[in-house]
Amino acid sequence: MKVIIAEYAGFCSGVKRAVQLAEDSLEKQPIRSLGPLIHNSQEIARLQRLGIHSGDEEILSQTSEKGEAVLIRSHGVGPQIIAELKDRGWHVIDATCPYVKKAQKLAQEALKEGYQVIILGNKEHAEVKGLRAWTKDTAIVVASWEDLKDINLPPKVAVLAQTTEKEAKFNELVSYLQGILDEVKVLKTICTATQQRQKAAQELATKVDLMLIIGGRHSSNTNKLWQICKSLNVNSHLIEEVGEMNPEWLKNKEIIGITAGASTPAWIIKEVVMIIEENNEKEVGIIEEQIDVNSNDDLLELKSFNPGDVIKGKVVKINAEEVLVDIGGKSEGIIPLEELAYKRVDPKEIVSEGQEISVEVLNEDKDGNIVLSYKKAQIEELLDKLEQAKESGEIITAPVIEIVKGGILVDVGIRGFVPASQVDRNFVADLNQYLNQELRMKVLELDRSGRKAVLSQRAVLEEEYQKIKGEVWEQLKEGQVRQGKVMRIATFGAFVDIGGIDGLLHVSEMAWGHISNPAEVVAEGDEIEVIILKIDPIKQKISLSLKGLIKNPWENAIEKYPIGKIVTGRVVRVAPFGAFIEVEPGIDGLAHISQLSQNRVSNVEEVLSVGQTVEAKVIENDPVKKRLSLSLKEIATDIEKVEYENYLGKREESSGVTIGEILKEIGQKL
What we know:
Blueprint: E1 2-5, H1 13-26, E2 31-34, H2 41-50, E3 52-55, H3 57-60, E4 69-72, H4 79-87, E5 91-94, H5 98-112, E6 116-120, H6 126-133, E7 140-142, E8 156-161, H7 167-180, E9 183-186, H8 192-205, E10 210-214, H9 220-232, E11 236-239, E12 255-260, H10 266-293, H11 297-302, E13 310-318, E14 322-326, E15 333-336, E16 356-364, E17 370-373, H12 374-377, H13 379-392, E18 396-404, E19 407-411, E20 415-419, E21 438-447, E22 452-456, H14 458-475, E23 481-490, E24 493-497, E25 502-506, E26 527-536, E27 541-545, H15 557-560, E28 566-575, E29 578-584, E30 587-592, E31 613-622, E32 627-631, H16 633-655, H17 659-669
Parallel strand pairs: 1-12, 2-3, 2-4, 4-5, 6-7, 6-8, 8-9, 10-11, 10-12, 20-22, 25-27, 30-32
Antiparallel strand pairs: 13-14, 13-16, 14-15, 16-17, 18-19, 18-21, 19-20, 21-22, 23-24, 23-26, 24-25, 26-27, 28-29, 28-31, 29-30, 31-32
Helix pairs in contact: 5-6, 8-9
């Protein structure tokens, strides 16, 4: 059995610095830690035995009159907490990781420059809480780009990530923001040690039979290591301490890989290695003992078959679950069904009785039978072809056989893994739609020893997209009318594919009238005609319009709404100075507060409310300035005049009294 420890496993420089700082400070004075110094309960227990005690709320609510020392954890805290501790008399020792410190400073500077800060990470994590505090708790914390879909963002944002976040996840968020905003400031805060640790774990997981990830279950970087390894090797286990080791995991495993989170000390890793060695020695001893007791030539001949040997044999029997092969031993070798191919098949479609085949020795089962693999023996030629495809960039086709965490598996003759980020050009929420489909891919990575390949369909699609994009860009012109398809709707508008390139149809360009929600006009999948308003080849942005294809209602507004005409409209907006009344989509008239009533109006909302239908009189129409002035007061005046004239006429007819006498009578009443 071989044990391989991944490069960069265990303490990172930031954690090592924090622990060293804690131990050095102990030599001078008693010390307390504001919260757990690192994410490892065993190391925290060791430090506590040395005299470093953790506390949260009690420290913040206590005053130190002797200037006792308090240690700021490696995840960092906000500036107000440090200030409060100093005000209470504590001697603050800052063990914040330098990478976290840098992220805090960048976040604070972005806020001062007027950016809305966005943090990718776990909002409950101590590091993220501290980062947000450096933005005066104004930063938006998201777990992925999808959390921003329903948020109205300002035009300027600065985006950064928790130091232990995945690079691919951060890039997806950045791409999303750059697609919808004019100014996105990208702050690089992911720790390089984290990236190196994850890459090393990823490479090792593809080469071993068993992968052990050591670290705290509450540790962000440890959990991400476990997720990465699990997606590449099903025999991956997360453990916090040696007591969680299961001896069953070690059975029939030749190569064991070990990685560890950034808060895992070296002494815990050593304990795990010792347990593996002890279990391995016991297992070998039992096997040797059985050989001594049952010693005979046949058994010794069986033991000459070593795992990894490629031998010849003849198929003697085929059944539904296995294939028996004569390899010249005491009994036939067994090929389990899952070792015929990388997907479930009918054995008779792969081999036939009497056929001579090459097989690879896997192991010996408890009954003394040699377990063989047909699929592994066939792959050397296949590996040569895959390596050639990788070098040449050749496109290969393969079916999707399984959806796994982090991506999909394809059958390319060996286990092919397509990470979720490499399935399509855009983010795919549900990978199940690809099950049993044929994908066209390029080989990104090939591990001959582990017999695994990492592939990408995105590389093929991106290459084709760039080719189409280049052709389309040459054809595009401002003012051009094109057929498009609505691909995605956002609060501010819709993204429309106009032949391989997405353009933005802003909500303000959907109609001449007021639109509160883009879904009122278009839906995903709609085929629509749009006009190109603006092309920005440098920023690769295209602005589209629907209303540009519709006649501007102001063109004949002077004929439709002459001065003095009574119109009916709907109140669409109320302001302190008056109300805007829509007389038709695209034409809003302003009824100034002074034109709402003959009586003095101090508050527009006392007279009108949004949604109310009213009649008004046109008192000004300027189609050049697109300004229509309306009056409700003059309608009331006109009605009073008519009623007054009717009143005078009726009095004169009924009583024979002169108009002068009537006026005199009215004046006396007034």
